[in-house]
Amino acid sequence: MNPFRASLKSSLHGNASEKTSFKKQFHMWVQIMHKTSAGRRPRKKVYHREHELDKAIDLQKKPSAILKLKSIIQGKKDKCLLLRDLEKEVGFVQKWNFISVIEKYPAVFYVSSGHKKAPAVMLSEKAEKIAAEEGGVNELMEPIVVNNLRKLLMLSVECRLPLETIDFVHAELGLPSDFKESLIPKFPEFFSVKDVHGRTCLELGIWDSSLAVTAREERYMEERILDSTGNMKRPRISKDGNFSGPFAFHLKFPAGFRPNMSYLQELEKWQKMDFPSPYLNAKRFEVSDPKARKRVVGVLHELLSLTMEKRLTSAQLDAFHSELRLPARLLLCLIKHHGMFYITNKGAKSTVFLKEAYDGSRLVDKCPILKFRDKFIALTGRRDSEPSSCAT
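== Ubiquitin carboxyl-terminal hydrolase family protein ==
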């Protein structure tokens, strides 16, 4: 037997057969009722799979485990973790996944073993050099996450959110795990913590109109600059449903979707329709107003745009339901606008993607911390053409 593997097994009292796990595959379809003549069954509309976005979930598994183990090791006083303590850190079941990661990536993790010393895992020399850059990267990220957190509060009805809700999505926003102690007190002019009806909430300090610009509006302004230089030409209406206008969203329909002309004409009307900014208070608008319904789509678009990887789990989206006045039938709203959003059931949790942010399975624009993680993961042989993973 490989001495390294024997060392791992002797330090962890468990059975390798317990490593087996099962995964369920989900297939989503939505039944749409149509007016039909007697005797006909309602037609079923298939929810088209986006295999590249499904792949993005699969690609995050190993990097997520590597980054989590890195954080555990760096959190130790002597920067190493005794293998016998691995189960305490990650749980009985997950320890086998981490053993596999340690074994598979010697360029990232080094296992020390001596005659009288218990086996311990630490970062390799190359990994240590890259990890040393993280402090500088976190400094670059601080103004980004502070502005995004302010924008998130500005999206909410009362300009405040329960701290437990923010904590639920802190990793996706790029916030440190201890943001309540390390970040919030540093900016008393921007944030205050208050008790509201028995819930601890984070409240916006100063409204900043310069921040009340959506990612959609920023994209439109960039496109107008390209138009003025003659480097970009768009048809008035096209088969992909995209329309270059101040109130239009960027659409990316799945490969199997074939819209007819009637659908495209209705879509063009919707794309041209003006709507209130997501940063205006939702209480001012009637839910039944088509413009207010389009505004809700804008709120979802902006919320996903504020995350590092432009995606959230369904549970995380639902956590903002009351504060952002999201629709009661949120799932149907996301499915209806499948040119913008994609829901995948790959992995343990369903995840909602902002499709325009991805080129295949690759996230197009990456913040400094994601670029840092790509650099770290590159030690395993993976390239930054693959998506980064948010580690908690």
